[in-house]
Amino acid sequence: ILLAILVTLVIIATVAGVVLGNSSGDESGSNSSIGSGEENLSPAGSPKQSPTAESPPIVFTPLGDTFPYTVPTNRFTPYHELDSTSKNVVQNQLGYTEVTWNNIGLNPIEWEKWNDLSSNERGGARQLGLSVDTWDCFVNHYSEYAWSELSENIQVHYQDLGWTQSHWEEIATTLPSTESKWWGQLTDNEKKAANGICYFKGNWDKVDMTPNSSYFPYPVPEFRYRPWDALDSVTSQVATTMLGYTDELWDDPGSHFVEKNTYLNLESEEQEGASYLGFYTHTWDCHVNHYLSYYWSSFHEDLKVAVETLGWDEDMWTGVSSATPKSEDKMWADLTPEEKAAATRLCYFREIWDGEPLSKWYDYALDKNTGVTVDGPLPNDINLGVFNLTGYVGRPPASVGR
């Protein structure tokens, strides 16, 4: 299953003469031929932890974190937990949707520094408890400032994260190595520097605050599992005109080249179309791309456990070795409980793993797919015990993956 897609990517990369990269950040000097292009962002999806079935606010100040300003807790509170006044401000003054609020960095307003916001936007931000200092630090991280405008302290923090003026001004052809690291992969000094520009594990790793009632790491995009002839006309038009789907490509998940890209590396129109359909970074990368376009070095904690449990190692993943994992020759029913758990962490389930067309597992009379439910219990034949050391195991649906 995975191998066929990886081979396709290698062939495409060879013919095009390009080196494809990790959606979660550029890995300078990598010779990997699998991936989806270079990104200028920190990792977009990571293992999240939560002790309850609700989606709690991000843990703002884990032990050891020190920030230059008080954390604006409203910004890191899930949308559904905001009061009605805050929701109104978020939507009408700052232009957020529930998805862009729950996923840090998706709303273009966060790319703006405080002084570039309109008076109405600044007023809304103030109502949420934000100020020029907390907006520029916790929301924008000074990214819209010219290097010369940064204070000496901020320059030092960025330098400790590998940045130089050439990187900042996009003169350098590579990015700092920290840009492709999860929080847990940063050194203590790098974490301290990140704290200085108001990053912490939650916003560095782009924690998804969206409520999730499934046993998958991210909410199931049910609309993607409706056959083409069961889609409404607007959805099929967007899928066709903005994402290049045909009925055949849509009904055969994994067959369309656009699905070989990560969300952040889609062309602007493709990303707009994916967003319109209801996708965002985490749901696309897991349920559509299945992390196939990630560099090996970007696998961390439970993601690394997942790919290794399925038998992959770095040489196989990058194409250095022609060997393939035994799991590649198995149908879902033949996978071990541990392999099924690993596949689940990559957002596979039986019908997708086995490559069944959507029409075979869709009940037109009930208008629902028969393959996976958004809130079903964890199947007995999936053993999440392989994730005992990563914090991914032992939690009920709706908290798995947080």
Report the structural category.
mainly alpha
Strand content: under 5%
Q: What is the averaged pLDDT score?
A: 84
Low-confidence stretches: 3-57, 394-402
Count of DSSP strands: 2
What form results from the Cα inertia axes? globular
Rg value? 21 Å
What order do the helices and strands follow?
A: HHHHHHHHHHHHHHHHHEE
Q: N-to-C terminal Cα separation, in Å?
A: 27 Å
Characterization of this structure:
- The protein is mainly α.
- The protein is 32% helix and 1% strand.
- The chain is built from 17 helices and 2 strands.
- The chain has helices spanning 2-16, 84-92, 98-102, 119-127, 132-139, 152-160, 165-168, 188-196, 201-204, 233-241, 247-250, 268-277, 281-288, 302-309, 314-318, 337-345, 350-353, and strands at 362-363, 368-369.
- The protein has a two-stranded antiparallel ribbon.
- A hairpin with a 4-residue loop joins strand 1 (362-363) and strand 2.
- Helix 14 crosses helix 16 (337-345).
- The two termini are 27 Å apart.
- Mean pLDDT is 84; it is low at 3-57 and 394-402.
